[in-house]
Specification:
Blueprint: H1 21-25, H2 29-44, H3 46-60, H4 68-82, H5 92-97, H6 102-115, E1 123-126, E2 129-132, H7 138-157, H8 167-172, H9 199-202, H10 206-213, E3 219-220, E4 231-237, H11 242-255, E5 266-272, H12 296-308, H13 314-330, H14 333-336, H15 340-352, H16 385-396, E6 403-407, E7 410-414, H17 422-445, H18 459-478, E8 498-501, E9 510-516, H19 521-536, E10 539-545, E11 603-610, E12 631-645, E13 656-661, E14 671-676, E15 683-688, E16 691-697, H20 701-705, E17 706-708, E18 720-726, E19 732-739, E20 747-753
Parallel strand pairs: 4-5, 9-10, 12-20
Antiparallel strand pairs: 1-2, 3-5, 4-6, 6-7, 8-10, 11-12, 12-15, 13-14, 13-16, 16-19, 17-20, 18-19
């Protein structure tokens, strides 16, 4: 569906139920649509309302804005006439003028603002999964619904659903609490930002970077208690533009919400990101981009000077930011900056900028012992606007004139299509606090810094160190490096409770700490993998034994071997040895044993050579000449699974599929496997092996009715690759399936009915070829 007109803000919604005809004609398209939609819903039912919406959006996509109102009127009247009503027919003129339902519209607008859903355009939320933009496609929506159904069935089967509680709440919060707000750059997803601040590009050392931050004033959330602020927002904005001013206002507005849980840990720093051409001089009026007023750089400098002022509250700062942005928007900045109070502050800001008297690498700046907001002594030397622009360009890696926000070092680009409001600042705080910053704050609060003078360890300095630490941890994580607390508690350091293997800690490439209950089945599986880490990867292994205190029966009733070759072995002739074997010794000869294999779920394994019944092994019954019992197993097939739907979004139950080996032209392809599509979610499975195959519809009635179309969605990387081949205008004939994983993920298959078989039934052999069955 085309993008519907955005709903009005609560302030724009009409207040009176009796409006003039001229007001009705100038009514926002979104408000007009909602009033008529609500009228049909209340009088004719939900089917009429959604028929009206579907018809309007299909027709409105091909007309101009001036013609939409006429289309809206025609579709509304036709829908009201087509659907019966026991409450009286809806009428266009009367219902369009009625503002009785606008309260619901204001609530929906408030919901969109508070949740962040739909702020960048139309969106659909499926069990907490937000689809917008290109993802809001009809086929992709069907695929997501199918996947959600599979997940719901899996959770129910494994007892992860409780029928006594709300199903939706359990589903959405499965795997961890869901976010109460959505922003595609913040929450995990395909567009989630992984960019970090380029600290090494902005400063030669981390200590120098912290010193640079100390030259910027910081506004704190709530009252300034002089404590460490582990959540730092760095906002790069061009106040000469409307978007830049809005970003600054939203950032300052976030500081006014002092009741939030993360507020005591939050501070905000601003950087001037205006274009060079718009900031030719430090003391002159700055040119702004199209549609913007002058003086954006000066306005930000003025705001920063206010932030240096001791005891400046967040509410006062927000009032000043609103005043500055209003003056810039109206073009009143030249007159505003000549007023006595503003001119005095600008003079102070100019005087505060000067050559550094301290070495930047010392990592200290500002009044010693001061906190973020009150650490602004008159002698504090601030960063000039020119330095700020260079710092912002190096730090964020974006062009000047653009906006960006960095929370604990994680960068979020701000554009016209991706706004950043006060609620998004809070969402970024929650995610980064739980992810890294809380751990960093606890570590710094208990840290000892003997190499630094006590007077230099200020809250502002520690806040800068917390930002650097959080950014470094996140950067390493995106490189695949995850650090954990490697040292076990003192109670586990005893030689009685564990042992060490491998090289010494200082010489080891890896340091592995394993807590193991030695009398459990998991320990049997972990032991060979830990040995491989120690032998092959030069890992220092610290095994800590953690058995249960009491047990009522033997905890282990079987013998386990993990078949794995941690290193490559070679034969005498230099060829690679391919023997993989599990050897069991010292087994009880009088006990009846059974051989059980535990291959990956997608493997079909069978016995290739076996003299004895491996399900009933009694070693004392072996012949006298037999010194060992041996069996050889082979991997026969790899299971490839998927889901299939047709163009009516229904599973084509009984559809016959074939998997054939890809062959050169002119050769008869080998049939590897065939299957039927099931009615339950269109599930199918095929026996395959590593290689490239052609998946096609089997000859006969299945191919007479259906042909293959494009897959609904690409499968996960690293499992199954799918490419579609065409047989011409008649439709798709085959799909290339490349199996290059030992455990392939499920694939998606879409089929389409042939034009002459629209009404044909696949499982009814009496259907006629003309599709009249």
């Amino acid at each position: 569906s085309p993008e519907p007109p955005p709903p009005p803000s609560p302030a724009d919604a009409p207040k009176s139920s009796e409006e003039s005809e001229s007001t009705t004609q100038s009514l926002d398209d979104g408000v007009a649509f909602y009033r008529l939609f609500r009228a049909l819903y209340e009088r004719h039912g939900n089917k009429a309302a959604f028929d009206f919406g579907d018809g309007y959006f299909r027709r409105a996509a091909g007309v101009g804005k001036e013609e939409r109102r006429a289309v809206l009127k025609d579709i509304f009247k036709a829908t009201a006439k087509r659907h019966r009503s026991d409450k009286g027919r809806a009428k266009y003129g009367r219902d369009l003028k009625s503002a009785a339902a606008d309260a619901f519209l204001r609530k929906s607008t408030a919901f969109a603002m508070n949740s962040g859903v739909g702020m960048q355009g139309p969106a659909c939320v499926v069990n907490g999964v937000v689809l917008e933009g290109m993802a809001l496609d009809e086929q992709n929506l069907h695929y997501v619904l199918q996947s959600q159904m599979v997940e719901l069935q899996r959770m129910t089967y494994f007892g992860q659903m409780d029928e006594q509680s709300d199903i939706y709440t359990q589903f959405v919060n499965h795997g961890g609490p869901a976010h109460k707000r959505f922003h595609k750059l913040i929450v995990p997803g395909p567009e989630s930002s992984s960019q970090m601040l380029h600290m090494t590009a902005a400063a030669p050392t981390y200590a120098a970077f912290v010193a640079h931050l100390a030259r910027l004033p910081a506004a704190v959330c709530g009252s300034d208690t002089g404590a460490l602020r582990a959540l730092t927002h760095i906002v790069a904005a061009d106040m000469g533009t409307r978007e830049g001013c809005e970003l600054v206002q939203e950032a300052v507005g976030r500081l006014t919400a002092a009741s939030d849980e993360t507020c005591p840990h939050v501070r905000i720093l601003f950087l001037d990101a205006s274009e060079e051409a718009s900031a030719a001089s430090e003391g002159a009026s700055q040119g702004a981009s199209e549609g913007a007023s002058e003086g954006g750089s000066e306005a930000l400098s003025l705001l920063q000077e206010m932030m240096w002022t001791p005891k400046m509250t967040a509410m006062e700062l927000k009032t000043q930011a609103d005043t500055l942005c209003t003056a810039l928007a109206k073009g009143d900045w030249p007159a505003t900056k000549t007023s006595a109070s503003v001119a005095t502050l600008l003079q102070k800001a100019t005087a505060r900028v000067g050559p550094r008297k301290q070495d930047a690498t010392q990592g200290t700046a500002g009044k010693k012992g001061s906190s973020d907001s009150s650490g602004a002594a008159e002698a504090t030397e601030a960063m000039s606007l020119k330095e700020q622009r260079a710092f912002a360009r190096a730090l964020f890696g974006v062009a000047l004139g653009s906006g960006a926000v960095a929370t604990s070092g994680r960068v979020f680009a701000v554009t016209n299509a991706t706004r950043f409001v006060a609620g998004d600042f809070k969402l970024a705080e929650v995610t980064e606090w739980k992810d890294r910053s809380e751990h960093v704050a606890k570590a710094l609060e208990s840290a000892q810094l003997p190499l630094l003078p006590a007077d230099d360890i200020t809250p502002g300095y520690l806040s800068g160190v917390a930002l650097v630490a959080a950014a470094v941890i996140s950067g390493e994580r995106h490189l695949g490096i995850v650090r954990r607390d490697q040292e076990a508690n003192r109670q586990w350091q005893s030689k009685v409770s564990g042992f060490h293997l491998g090289p010494k800690v200082k010489k080891a490439l890896l340091h592995t700490v394993a807590f193991i209950d030695p009398l459990c089945s998991d320990a049997q599986r972990m032991a060979p993998m830990l040995m491989a880490l120690s032998e092959v990867f030069n890992s220092h292994l610290h095994v800590i034994l953690n058995p249960v205190a009491e047990m009522g029966s033997l905890p282990i009733k079987g013998y386990y071997r993990f078949v794995m070759k941690p290193a490559i072995d070679f034969n005498a002739d230099g060829s690679v040895s391919s023997n993989l074997r599990a050897t069991f010794t010292n087994l009880p000869v009088s006990k009846l044993l059974s051989m059980n294999l535990h291959p990956p779920n997608a493997w079909f394994v069978s016995a290739a050579h076996c003299v004895h019944d491996m399900d009933n092994v009694l070693l004392e019954k072996l012949a006298s000449h037999e010194t060992a019992l041996t069996a050889t197993y082979r991997l026969d097939h790899i299971l490839v699974t998927g889901h299939c739907i047709d163009d009516s979004r229904q599973p084509p139950a009984g559809l016959q599929l074939e998997l054939k080996a890809a062959q050169a032209a002119g050769k008869v392809p080998e049939l590897v496997g065939d299957t039927l599509v099931m009615s339950n979610l269109g599930y199918f499975q095929l026996k395959a092996r590593p290689g490239i195959f052609n998946l096609s519809i089997a000859e006969g009635r299945s191919r007479e009715i259906y042909h293959l179309s494009s897959p609904l969605a690409p499968p996960p990387a690293g499992s199954v690759a799918v490419a579609v081949g065409s047989e011409g205008a008649a439709g798709r004939d085959w799909q290339t399936v490349s199996v290059f994983s030992w455990e392939p993920e499920a694939m998606s298959l879409s089929v389409t009915r042939r034009p002459a078989m629209i009404n044909a039934r696949l499982l009814d052999s009496g259907d006629q070829a003309d599709g009249g069955g």
